[in-house]
Amino acid sequence: MQKSSLNRRTLLAAAGATALVAGPARLLTPAMASGRFAPTETMRGGANNYMPNAPFVDRLGKGFLMSGRVMRAGDGAPLGNIRIQIWAATTLGGEREPRNHGSVLTGPDGRYQLEMEQIVPNFGQPHAHLAYDDGAFRTVFLRPVMPSPKDTSLTADFILDPA
Amino acid sequence: MAGPDDQPKTGGAGVRAGRVAGLGLLLLLTVPILIAAASPLQSYRSIAYVSGSLAGVTALMLLIAQPLLAGGLWPGLTRAATRRWHRRAGGVLAASVLVHVGGLTIASPADAIDALMLVSPTPFSIYGVTAMWVTVLTVLLVVLRRRLPVRPVTWAWLHNGLALLLVGATVVHAMMIEGTMGPVSKGLACAAALVAGTGIIAYLRVWRTLRHRA
Q1: Which UniProt keywords apply (chain A) (predicted)?
Q2: Do B104 and A44 touch (CB under 8 A)?
Q3: Which residues constitute the domain of residue B135?
Q4: Residue A123 at interface with chain B, using a CB cutoff of 8 Å
Q5: Is the ipTM of this complex over 0.90?
Q6: What's the structural domain count of chain B?
């Protein structure tokens, strides 16, 4: 919990410092500034190697924690029971390796998390892919990049726009 | 390699020392490729991805060799031999670019197509794609050399201009990538490619021309 907000603050600082910044920071900035929750936009390349309807899993391995929050656009209310699909290149193989694909549900507080194998640099950047693609809200594909390939966790938040 | 007509003027010991130095240089250029091949990341990748990544490193290393060959500065080789090897290495360089792009396209078509269409999220892709098209232009320039209505001096300048663009784009591309290359060998290889490329053009087009006129 603490980790998540800390991480976002770090990202926001990075957004001010550089133009080459991970998408979530850029997308969250206007929302934070204006005090409302603007919908998260799909990131470039976010849907690459997407295999729809990844099976629900308890975990995809161990040692790396993917987590985040899912909120409703506008009021920022946490959204529970939302399916988030996650895939990434890990020590198990590339992004098309089925063992690297899994779905989890958010809890009542809107938080989700998935433990998986260590994410490794793929196509030049260590990154994950996440999707909300279930119809009730507008589909969003994220592609957050890890600041360092040595990181053992990554967060990505969704602010969903009712479809 | 060297024919009887183009033996260096130095004595037998000098020739041997030159050849040893030439072989040593060739082996030195393979070191960054071996380091990349030994990266733990390779074991998580498909054969297409491994081939593509190593072909990219090979292309970078050839960018160090090419200026030395073009300038006749490769130790142990005569001028005539370096010209032949410059042409052959150019062919290998073009083939490496093809394997690099082809391998990555097989490994992840969506990511490769994004890069080729210039809509990739990775900022280094645009430099890689630039380097690819400069390679294509260079191949055309070489293949159509006799049919192009340009004087040899102009052709040489065109070739040099494309070569500098290729080195610059490749170095930026390589430095921004978090991949299989060792950070030290990558930095040294990129510096060597820049120094060799700019140095040889200054040597050939400025220094030697001025000496000829004097």
Answers
A1: Signal
A2: no
A3: 12-213
A4: yes
A5: no
A6: 1
